Every structure is written in C-alpha cells, then in structure tokens.
Amino acid sequence: MKKYYDPLTHPHCQAQPYAASYWASSTTLPTPKPPPASSQTFEVAIIGGGFSGLLTAYYLASHYNIDCCVIEANQVGYGASARNAGFVLKGSGRLSYPKIVNKWGMSVAKGIYSEFSESVERVSNLITEHSIACDSQERGYLKVAHSLNAMQSLKEQTKLLTELGDSATLLSKEHLKAHFMNHAQAYGAMRLSDGFGINPLKLLLGYRQITLNAGVTLFENSLVRSSHSTSNGHELVINDTSISIRAKNIVFAGNAYNNKVTHPIINNRYIPIMSSIMVTRPLNQLELSLTGLKTHQVTMDTRTLKYYYRLLPDKRLLFGGRGAVFASQQQHPRFLKGLKQGLTDCFPCLNGISHDYYWSGFVAATLDDMPHVNFKDSIGYILGYCGAGVSFSAQAAFRLAQQISGQSPPNLPLYNTSLPYVPFPKFRRLGQLAFYQYATVADRL
C-alpha cells in the first residue's frame, strides 16, 4: 500500500503510519485494545474511533444505557482527531453566520449559533467533569483581518454575532498590537471570548478512557472489510477473518478518513482537504518581544485559504494552513516553504526560524459548507466538520446519540438535511486545484 493514506485512492487506512506530530511527541499511546476474537452482537456498532465515534458511544452508554461498540481500523489517535491544531471554536463549518442568515433567516441562525456555542461548553465540561489533562490554554479566539475589506466584513460579523447573543469585540490594529500580537499584516481583529486551545491527542485519550469507563467495547486494529444488511440489522466483517460484528444500528464516524466506497449513504458526499501544520522551536525572549505575542489564545485570519496559529505552553509557535491536494505530495518541500512564508509575512522577525515538527491530515468539507448529523433507517453518520471538528464533534455525538435513542434533535439544517451529493466526483481534485488558484488571487485583493 502507498505510504500516505488518501481517502480517494486507498481502499482503507489500516496499517498506515501515525502522524509525526508535536502532540504525539509528548504523549504515550495506551496499549491498543485487541480486535474481536469471536463474532459478537451489539445494539449499535460505530465505525471510527476518533472524537465523533468515541463520544457517540459514550453518550449512548452513559445517557441511554445502549449496548454499543467502537471499531477502529488502527489505534485511536491515527486520524484527524489527533492531527489537528487543537482549536476549540464555535465555528459554523465554512458557512459564515451572515450567509446562514441570508439562507435560512435569523431564527435558524440563532439555533445553529446556539448549537456551536454549546459545543464549546460541552468540550469544556467534559474536560472539567472527567479531569482530562489536555493542556487547556486561556480562553479567547482572535479572527485577524488580513485586508481592509476583511476588516469591514468583521465589523458586520461583530454586529451580527452581538444580535445572536455573543460578546464579540472588534479590535483596532493598534489595540491588537498593544494587547495581543504585533501582526505585520493585520488591519484589526474580532475577538470571541470562549474559544481555547488544547492538546487534541490528550483530549482524545481522555475521551477513550471515559468511553471505556462507561462500559463501551472498543476494538482497535479492526478494519471493517465489508458490511451488508441482514434481517436483524447489519453485519460487519472484521480484518481478514470470518469474524463479524452484528448490530441493529451502525454509525459511520470516520469523517475524512472514510474511503470513497465506505457506504452509499456517504460516498461522494464530501471533499477531503489536506491541511498542514508546523511547530517551531521554542521562541526566545527577544522573538517573543518582537512578535508582540502576549497571548496563548487561538488565532485565525480571514483569508479564504486561512492561516491559523497559537503560542503553545512551551513557547513554541504552532502555525497551520493549506496543505497538498494529493496525499502523495504532502512532504514536498514547497508546502512547508509556503507555511514558513506565511509565518514570515505575519511575523517578519521569525524569518528563517527552524521547525521541530511538521505533519498533515485531512478534513472533510461538504458541498454546502456545513456538517451533517443524521440517523435514518438504522444507519447514522457524522460528516463534514469543515475544520471545526474539535468542538462540534462533542455536540454532534450528543445529538446523534439522541436520534439513535429515539429523541428528536433541534429542527435545524445540521440535523434535518442530508449530505449533498458532490457532482462529477471523479474531478474533485481538479476542482480543488482550480479553487486554490482562485482563492490565492482573491486573498491578495
């Protein structure tokens, strides 16, 4: 099998290398749970052991006493849940709140805003309630305007978010420099008070433990080779064996790490997009002074092809952005060079700074730019976080568990609409390349 997993070309992701991430360098993975030794039956089988899968199982077991299992092809920590930047934000996918208002009206926008706000608090409460040591940092999310037009847009967003009930604050360029950072390209920023950064691998392992404590069965290194419907539900064949997991209901929770033939209900309904992250060596006192970094709050800019960054507890700077289109090219020097140029553009004093870690991973984007959480006819899925999965995965898992237990979620497009089909799916990557070209020009205007 090729070295780097690509959901559009690989049959599965089992036995792939783990990301050489900063998170993994400071975290020891527990001994993996074994694959099933014999065929077993559960009420719910969840495919995918990341944030979504583990928390769906946790809520099913702890809130509804539903017998369930989680089936993970590798060991938890392989996929996007431990590759991301660890930003806990109430982001609405790639669909902005002004666009949500224009599309569905203020009432729906308030409902969606409430769901994403609850997701941040849900993650925070899980961390506190279960004493999950995941290096939580100070609260606050800065959205930095990269142009005058972007600053005007942030003014409008600040007004709208205030109407939705947020404590959004608009920061002038001078205020941003004096109190947060000396950002060379900033025209100002918007600050939200309730985002925060964490170590996503440590958070994931915390979720793993509370899920096991709730009585959920976890199978690791257990690839679902095939699945088919039965008179009693579904049968999932595990690894190269005759062992199967039978379940009344199944859930697909692999997000961007599903493959393109996982199941008709999600096939060709998302676009896997690669993001790359580097972590610098620790900044010295002079560099901290020159960058003006006075905060560990999570930060993102307003570009279409966004940069996102934060100062880590050990004074390293995490900096992420667009990665390769094709997984096979993710280690090509031009992508790391592009990140370093982006970092230099933001903080010129860091030109030439060395990095200690660099890795990539996929996020799942949908055609309508928002996540979907659905359960119908014994099949459920969570898909399309569009980069906001660290926080919304907790709310999505809770809402999916509600649906499986027979309760109705809020009447919102997140839960009552299906994933839209991606037209001409064979040309997804060509479309992505074309979009990158367009976005690169647009971000310079």
Rg estimate, integer Å: 21 Å
Question: How helical, in percent, are the residues?
Answer: 25-40%
Mean pLDDT over the residues: 94
One letter per element, helices H and strands E, the order comes to: HEHEEHHEHEHEEHEEEEEHEEEHEEEHHH
Amino-to-carboxy terminus distance:
42 Å
Briefly note the structural class of the backbone.
Answer: alpha/beta
Q: Report the β-strand fraction as a percent range.
A: 15-25%
State the helix count. Answer: 12
Poorly predicted runs are none
Number of distinct beta strands:
18
Shape: globular
Biggest sheet layout = 8 strands, mixed
Organism: Pseudoalteromonas citrea
InterPro entries: FAD-dep_OxRdtase (IPR006076), FAD/NAD-bd_sf (IPR036188)
Keywords: Oxidoreductase
GO cellular component, one term: cytoplasm
How would you sum up this structure, described in words?
The protein is of the alpha/beta class and 445 residues long. Helix content is 33%, strand content 22%. It has twelve helices and 18 strands. The protein has helices spanning 22-25, 51-64, 97-104, 106-129, 148-164, 173-179, 200-213, 285-291, 333-346, 389-404, 413-416, 428-444; strands at residues 40-47, 68-71, 87-88, 141-144, 169-171, 189-192, 196-197, 217-219, 224-230, 233-238, 244-252, 271-280, 298-301, 308-311, 317-322, 355-365, 372-376, 379-383. The strands form three sheets. Strands 1, 2, 8, 9, 10, 11, 17 and 18 form an eight-stranded mixed β-sheet that branches. An eight-stranded mixed β-sheet has the order 5-6-4-13-14-15-12-16, sandwiched between helices. Strands 3-7 form a two-stranded antiparallel ribbon. β17 (372-376) and β18 form a beta hairpin. The longest helix is centred in the N-terminal third of the chain and has 24 residues, at 106-129. It is globular and about 65 Å long. The model has no long low-confidence stretch (mean pLDDT 94). Keywords: Oxidoreductase. InterPro entries: FAD-dep_OxRdtase (IPR006076), FAD/NAD-bd_sf (IPR036188). Residues 44-402 form the FAD dependent oxidoreductase domain.
